[in-house]
Write a structure and sequence with these properties.
With about 325 residues, the protein is of the alpha/beta class. It has helices at about 45-55, 75-85, 100-110, 125-130, 135-150, 170-180, 205-210, 275-280, 285-295, and strands at about 10-15, 60-65, 90-95, 115-120, 155-160, 180-185, 215-220, 225-230, 240, 255-260, 265, 275. A 12-stranded mixed β-sheet has the order 7-8-9-6-5-4-3-2-1-10-11-12. The structure holds S-adenosylmethionine and iron/sulfur cluster.
């Protein structure tokens, strides 16, 4: 369905849980989060219900995220049910990769097409530091398992943080030399935990890109992708830059989000939310109408760079990235 700016909204990102097995410093509070009563979180059946209507309205691309989606019980059956919805063309997941080794084959069998894996450093100690306890080797094994079962293409999402991992850019780029993977550098966003971080932690992707002079621009055929793609002259894989801060990709934004606690979010960078849980639980109103309302109220562009931009109150683990 088209929004008020004429954009075709065909991409639903679903956060299926607030819970996570990591505590990344820019995303989660150190002490973790208070576990919500299960009534506050949509059941997987309720999420399926909303997704079915979204697909009916023209959504053909779905991403499952969180929190960490692989910690939610029933994930495989859920993926299976979404994959079977007629009209789904692309079913993907964003994960920290810790449980991929265990689940890759089942996910593939259930109908998942591909995974994006979040990985901010290739050094054991630094991984432990930024994730507050994670084990890099387990993630690397998860990536190998995903490759092996054919969850393609594999995309690695790397948030660049000043004075933390900006010295590893060349190492990440080097991964694309021999391997058919996509490494995507994402600008740190001042959301949730990171909203109070000092300016020197936020590095524009243009600075990162200029450091690698041999990059050749390529077009990956998807103008809705927030990433601009490049490759090394002899490289097999691709390098993407996602610049939510330094450049708008709002003009081509085709997405809408559903949070685990039952809110529709038309824009990542706005506090606007539409409650869909009440309607689901009490048969009030029309779910389809609420979805249409969310799509029609999607702002034409975000206000992140405006002086009066309202800080985003939800942490990223409660939005889904
Ligand atoms: N747990 C899964 C994972 O880490 O891939 C999925 C959820 S996580 C919230 C989704 C993505 O959001 C991750 O790639 C993470 O790096 C990114 N993210 C979280 N907080 C962010 C921030 N303040 N700025 C930029 N990216 C952020
Ligand atoms: Fe968990 Fe993903 Fe947030 Fe890290 S970025 S704390 S893995 S939800």
């Amino acid at each position: 369905m088209k929004d008020a700016s004429g954009r075709n909204i065909n991409y639903l990102r679903i956060s299926i849980t607030d819970l996570c097995n990591l505590r990344c410093m820019y995303c989660m509070p150190q002490d973790g989060i208070e576990k919500k009563h299960h009534r506050e979180i949509l059941s997987l059946e309720e999420i399926y219900e909303v997704t079915k209507i979204a697909v009916d309205l023209g959504v053909d691309k779905v991403r499952i995220t969180g929190g960490e989606p692989l910690v939610r019980n029933g994930i495989i059956k859920f993926i299976e049910s979404i994959a079977q919805l007629e009209g789904i063309r692309d079913l993907a997941m964003t994960t920290n990769g810790l449980l991929l080794k265990e689940y890759a084959q089942e996910l593939k069998n259930a109908g998942l097409d591909r995974v994006n894996i979040s990985l901010d450093t290739l050094k054991d100690e630094k991984y432990k530091e930024i994730t507050r306890g994670g084990n890099l080797k387990t993630v690397l094994e998860g990536i190998e398992a995903a490759k092996k079962v054919g969850l393609n293409p594999i995309k690695i999402n790397t948030v660049i943080i000043g004075n933390f991992n900006d010295d590893e850019v060349e190492d990440f780029v080097g991964l694309t030399l021999k391997e058919n993977i996509e490494v995507r550098f994402i600008e740190l966003m001042p959301i949730g935990q990171a909203s109070t971080w000092t300016k020197n932690k936020f590095i524009s992707n243009s600075i990162i890109k200029d450091r690698i002079s041999e990059l050749m621009p390529i077009y990956d055929g998807d103008r809705h992708s927030p990433a601009k793609y490049y490759k090394l002259p002899d490289g097999v894989g691709k390098i993407g830059f996602i610049n939510p801060i330094s450049s708008h990709f709002c003009k081509y934004c085709n997405r809408i989000r559903l949070t685990a606690d039952g809110r529709l979010k038309p824009c990542l960078h706005s506090n606007q939310e539409i409650d869909i849980k009440t309607a689901l639980r009490h048969n009030i109103g029309d779910l389809r109408k609420l979805l249409e309302e969310a799509i029609l109220s999607k702002p034409s562009q975000h206000t992140l760079n405006d002086l009066d931009h309202e800080p985003i109150v939800r942490d990223m683990y409660r939005i889904g990235g």
